[in-house]
Amino acid sequence: MDTPLREPTFLILTALASEPMHGYGLIGEVAALSENRVSLRPGTLYGALDRLTDAGLVHVDREELVDGRLRRYYRLSPAGKTVLGEEAERLRRNVEAATTRLRTPTRTGHRAVPRTAGGLA
């Protein structure tokens, strides 16, 4: 799987890093990790889980029958752990670079100030 990971994919892998989870548990955990910025719909989540499974980053851990419905639990694979670790390190380096630049005076002696108007890069 290519990096950089999209934020929902990064958050799904992050949620699975601590323990196996079922779909609706993942929806809640992704919302909590993102402070409700990322809200996954079931169709989006299960499509992502299928792609992550096909890529070997996630495996089905177990299935349970709950109230007549099959509940599938997913877990992070060793390859998924590696990809998540690499992406976390990439993001850490980016944050470090941005933080350093924001603290470093410019040639005019003023600190760099983030733009508040205009478009995104």
Automatic annotation (TrEMBL):
InterPro entries: Metal_resp_DNA-bind_regulator, Tscrpt_reg_PadR_N, WH-like_DNA-bd_sf, WH_DNA-bd_sf. Residues 12-85 form the Transcription regulator PadR N-terminal domain. Pfam families: PadR (PF03551). This is Transcriptional regulator PadR-like family protein. It comes from Micromonospora viridifaciens.
